[in-house]
Amino acid sequence: MNRTMFSSRGTKKMIWREQPCYRAIVAVDAVNSTARTDMEKAELRRRLYEIFEDALYGAGIGESSRDALIDRGDGILTLIDPAVPKTVLLNEVVPTLGERLAEVAGLRLRTIVHAGEVLYDRRGVFGESVDLTFRLLEAP
Q1: Gap between the Cα atoms of 8 and 34, Å rounded
Q2: Where does residue 68 fall: left (phi above 0), alpha (psi -120 to 50 degrees), or beta otherwise?
Q3: Which string of DSSP letters, residue by residue, matches 118-134?
């Protein structure tokens, strides 16, 4: 059974599914963000969202092809519809992130592209694939 839920902003829908569903998982994380002041972090977040959204839209991945972006403090997580080929993520999104990062002095990102089954509940997304994504993202 699917249940429609709205985010706290009331604008984006998230579907609460009782069965796992397959998604590509893309996450980015700012390197060494804890060494920055809060004002520097505010600018970092602004640029991070700008770069990430530009990379997705540039590859043709709009809001209808992915879940709403999930804020991770100094990073972002998004789940991509399985209709989007992973080659688009690897050959277009990731290189665009690298190109755009070259424009921003002092910003380094870790990026992970993974895929697997995820589950949704009223608080968001979870599951082994999401856990593994963050383990890989934080690996040295």
Answers
A1: 27
A2: beta
A3: EEEETTEEESHHHHHHH
Q: What is the pTM of this model?
A: 0.83
The residues near 114 (Cβ < 8 Å, ≥ 6 apart) are 24, 25, 27, 129, 132, 133, 136
More confident residue, 56 or 139: 56
For residue range 2-35, list pLDDT tens digits in order: 443 433 334 444 555 678 999 999 999 988 888 8
Quick one: tokens of 133?
Answer: 């994504």
Q: Cα torsion for 110, 111, 117, 123, to the nearest 10°? A: 60
Per-residue tokens: 102: 């070259």
Q: How many Å apart are CA 130 and CA 16, to the nearest integer?
A: 16
- Judged by DSSP in three states, 64 sits in helix
User: Contact at 8 Å (CB) between 79 and 125?
Assistant: yes
